[in-house]
Amino acid sequence: VVDGTFKRVGTFPTPWPFFSIAANKEFLAEEGAKEALVSVLEVVKAAADEFRCGGQSTFEYILEHYRIEKEPAAEWLPTVDWACEAQVDLEMLHKVGETLHRLKKIETETGNPPTEAEIEGATTRLESSSKRTKPEETSESAAAE
Length: 145
Hints:
With about 140 residues, this protein is mainly α. It has seven helices and no strands.
């Protein structure tokens, strides 16, 4: 935008991250796949934490690599929300699904926006070695006991 390559038409803040890692069910079903994915996420988190805490070096990197002028970069950088955990807010995903459905960017078999249960069913819980948490017990697993 600054050098004239693109023209800024406007901004549209989104509730989803700029950078995401996704894996399909077939990959996640493979032995050791979830652990491998968690390892990748931990490396990305460490790099993001280092970048986030880099202060002036982070600012200089952004200026150099993205060719952003100092004043807009100084205004923008503090507004960046660094979501570095391997957890996703299911309510946020549901809102994204509703929005994408309303904009006719995704379709469902029923023609309705995806339900919260469909959203949760399409996600996989991963455990980070740095933060082990027990998956929440579902009513089905409790009934089976």
